[in-house]
Amino acid sequence: MRNPQYDAGMEVRRQVLGDDHVARAEAAKTPLDAPFQQLITETAWGTVWASDAISRRERSMLTLALLAATGNFDEIPMHIRATANTGATPQDIAEVFQHVAIYAGVPRANRALKLAKETLADMATGDSDDTTQTD
Q1: SS3 letters across 71-116
Q2: So what's the pLDDT on residue 126?
Q3: Where does the Carboxymuconolactone decarboxylase-like domain start and stop, copy by copy (predicted)?
Q4: For residue 33, what are the domain limits?
Q5: ∠ CA(36), CA(42), CA(43), 5° rounding?
Q6: Is residue 134 part of a domain?
Q7: Neighbouring residues of 89: CB distance < 8 A, sequence distance ≥ 6
Q8: Residues 47 and 33 in one domain
């Protein structure tokens, strides 16, 4: 069932999220979510994130903005951690969530900033465990 797009997606996924994260996600994979994992690896990582049309820094910032704007807060810490690999800075993150406040609402931006602060603090102390995320 694997194809070159899957392999490219897995490579990008490891580069962005880190080997440890992907290893945990792969170890947690079951027959129930295996098709979903293949789908996101091929499409999100092998198509969207693999594109060189924009930088990974820009893609990271867009992802954070979209997650916050749509209220998908569970994914934000994982993507905050990924900024260590994409080049998006804490200042970039702050700018992203200011944009969210104006265009999607202050409560969503406020929640996203809270998660960003917690995650960045954990990263600064070396506690970047993200075992709850499997994508």
Answers
A1: CCHHHHHHHHHHHHHHCCCHHHHHHHHHHHHHHHCHHHHHHHHHHH
A2: 87
A3: 35-118
A4: 1-52
A5: 90
A6: no
A7: 83
A8: yes
Last residue of a domain, one of 14, 32, 52: 52
**Nearest residue to 112 (alpha-carbon basis) of 102, 100, 124:** 100
Claim to verify: residue 47 and residue 74 sit in the same structural domain: no
Could you tell me if 82 and 60 are in contact, meaning their C-beta atoms sit under 8 angstroms apart?
Answer: yes
Tens digits of residue pLDDT in 92-106:
999 999 999 999 999
Angle between helices 106-124 and 90-104 (to 10 degrees): 160
**CB 85 within 8 Å of CB 127:** no
User: Does 135 fall in a domain?
Assistant: no
Taking the model in full, what pTM does it have? 0.91
**Residue corresponding to tokens 């792969």:** 26
